[in-house]
């Protein structure tokens, strides 16, 4: 009897280990369903977006999640609700270690990002970059918009706001972005203005770099612009955070109408500002299309070993009249 008891005690740790491994495997193949239920899925994709523009990324993720459900895929907003705030490269490394079936991530030109994406590909994990690309990497697909085209749209709106063909334009840049997207947008703005006006002698296009790594730094930097001695004729925002901060500053410091603004994104707050002509126009990317295409690209590669290297996301400019119509539909 004693030997049987000892044998049972020796066997118990192995039983617990087997149970743990089974639960871990099951947990990585089960996603939360509606009304607190659960649903099984065939693949597990990790979406990693880093910090900033939370409303924008929430919409992209929601679309990716819904597209995944249609395909039996669980798309996880990787790193969300963790006790520790990991940066994008740390989350990318963690996703590789977790052996997910695919990764959706915002790209940049940093060497570390290139190496991590290539490491994922070497491990058999396909990678799709979204919004901003990582050109030097071996990622399978980039889902986003042509940044030069976005810059052209900004340029056309600036021309409408400067009917005399003269004035000062200030473009807000995120100094923490290391990819070339902002430079391409800026180049397109300048070339669009120069082509229409013949030269840039009467129009200045300046930039103002904002450090987005600290809490409230964007708000403080944009506040300083509005409290300065001279405001630009046109203020251009290239992300949703800067747009919201500029809108708030214009209202708080009674500068509505003093400076014309072109925003980015179409959240309810930004649409409301455009409908009231506080922001004169906003450039919006189709967030639903972005999330949907990113999942489709991964699925296509997993199933066929091939996918398009680039999938375009639609962009459109929203003016006050259209914003008012959209607000009525909410």
SSE order: HEEEHEHEHEEHEHEHEHEHEHEEH
- Judging by the overall fold, what is the CATH architecture of the largest domain? 3-Layer(aba) Sandwich
- Regarding quaternary structure, what we see is single chain
Largest sheet, spatial ordering of strands:
4-3-5-6-7-13
Number of strands: 14
CATH superfamily of the largest domain: Response regulator
Strand count, sense and closure of the main sheet? 6 strands, parallel
Q: Structural class of the helices, strands and pairings?
A: alpha/beta
Mean pLDDT across the residues is 88
In the predicted model, the low-confidence regions spanning at least 5 consecutive residues are 1-26
**CATH fold call of the largest domain:** Rossmann fold
Give the overall shape: elongated
Residues in β-strands, percent: 15-25%
**Helix content percent band:** 40-55%
Gyration radius from CA atoms, angstroms: 24 Å
Q: How many structural domains can be distinguished in the coordinates?
A: 2
Number of helices: 11
